[in-house]
């Protein structure tokens, strides 16, 4: 069974960079094309000025950090609306706004029909995760890691950071349409209990070992550095940056 997102749900998801239109920018790209090494390298070269980076590994990391919003978008829809987005790369494109100084691209879906749970919500949830991670984000991580020569752990932590942020924001500001118990269950499942097969063949759940420590204010401390400081004139670091960065 498939359903559509309501206008209110579309508006809510726009804060996770769900886009409604194609932008026509030269920096917009079909998601499926990013898995082809030559095309990916050409794209990273094209966007490096937006990221203020002259190093391929830095560009790759910060590109994935922006693309990571797809995880927050998809999991929010799954948990709050009980609707699974079609994250097949062939159904999606990354749309760039040339006037945006921060370069925060949006995700455009050709078809926005969504799956909904049947009698077994757990099986449905696994399908949403498999589509998101194994069939999309894991392939992107593998390609960026290989071509930009950057650790997969850094890239997975870039993604995990936004998953943690999204779920902890939900726990602190629960929408009326979902229970705290449902938020907690999905959160725990995604970052700790989900089987590695949902992320790719021969993989373990890449989020299980992340965010072990917290600052006194409750902020999560990363295990790796996303390399953002290498794009900052003052060498500013993210608030969650570890003391010893992996470069």
UniProtKB/TrEMBL annotation:
Pfam families: FhuF, FhuF_C
Ranges of residues in domain Aerobactin siderophore biosynthesis IucA/IucC-like C-terminal: 61-172
Name of the protein this chain belongs to: Aerobactin siderophore biosynthesis IucA/IucC-like C-terminal domain-containing protein
Superkingdom, taxonomy of origin: Bacteria
Residues annotated as domain Ferric siderophore reductase C-terminal: 222-243
GO molecular function term, any single one: catalytic activity
């Amino acid at each position: 069974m498939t359903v559509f997102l309501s206008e209110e749900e579309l508006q809510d998801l726009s804060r996770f960079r769900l886009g409604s239109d194609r932008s026509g920018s030269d920096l917009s790209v079909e998601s499926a094309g990013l898995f082809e090494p030559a095309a990916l390298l050409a794209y990273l070269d094209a966007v490096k000025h937006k990221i203020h980076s002259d190093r391929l590994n830095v560009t790759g990391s910060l590109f994935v950090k922006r693309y990571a919003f797809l995880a927050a978008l998809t999991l929010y829809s799954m948990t709050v609306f009980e609707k699974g987005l079609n994250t097949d790369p062939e159904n999606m494109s990354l749309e760039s706004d040339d006037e945006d100084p921060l370069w925060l691209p949006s995700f455009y879906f050709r078809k926005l029909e969504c799956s909904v749970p049947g009698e077994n919500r757990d099986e449905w949830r696994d399908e949403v995760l498999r589509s998101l991670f194994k069939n999309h984000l894991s392939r992107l991580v593998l390609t960026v890691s290989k071509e930009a020569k950057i650790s997969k752990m850094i890239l997975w932590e870039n993604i995990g950071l936004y998953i943690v942020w999204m779920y902890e924001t939900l726990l602190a500001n629960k929408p009326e349409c979902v229970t705290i118990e449902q938020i907690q269950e999905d959160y725990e499942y995604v970052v700790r209990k989900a089987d590695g097969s949902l992320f790719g063949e021969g993989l373990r759940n890449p989020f299980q070992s992340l965010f072990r420590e917290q600052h006194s204010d409750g902020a999560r401390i990363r295990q790796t550095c996303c390399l953002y400081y290498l794009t900052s004139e003052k060498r500013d670091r993210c608030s969650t940056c570890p003391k010893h960065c992996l470069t």
